[in-house]
Request: fold
Amino acid sequence: MKILIVEDQKELAQNITAYLSKEGYVCEWAPDYRTAIDKLAGYNYDMVLLDLMLPDGNGLDILRYIKREDADMGVLILSAKNALDDKINGLDLGADDYLAKPFHLSELNARVKAIFRRRNLSGSHDMVFNEISINTDTMEVKVNEDYLDLTRKEYEMLLYMLVNKNRVLTKQSIAEHLWGDYMDSVDSFDFVYQHIKNLRKKITKAGGKDYIQTMYGSGYKFNAKA
Reply:
């Protein structure tokens, strides 16, 4: 999962990034309103952790922008403001949840997971497609009844492709989703092909179908009709 952290407190943003990165998330940081808007306009994210009080703008305006441009993006509001009006306004504008500062990072992680499950897995820990099943809580993947020995990136790639099945995903979008926004400056995305190759091999070796379709000149697609 790729997360944008909109937070002007550098130390807090670093602590969140360090904790969530250990949990397998790809995190980017925006310290102010303008940086957040620029990143949201240029890159795709699964979720935004959004502070309401920013040095150059209001976080609620960022929320309005998100819901106008990408209503499917999850939003968790993080704010020291405990006023009921702020919570109600954020939820009314489409935020998924609200967490008041200070908070425990373990609780933040639980809220992030819950939002992802609600938005992508109908609230379940499990994603099942034909013979492939993924437990997003334990990060275990099975083909039929055999567990796959996947690397973290292979797991994230499979989950990303299943969530976006039947959509063409460019090599750049896959790279940015799994390694961060700085990947847009890389000259070659050959490493994406290698991860795709390894993932295909492990799935088919376990008796699964090869659903990953190469779209020459474009990228890849998890073809659910294969």
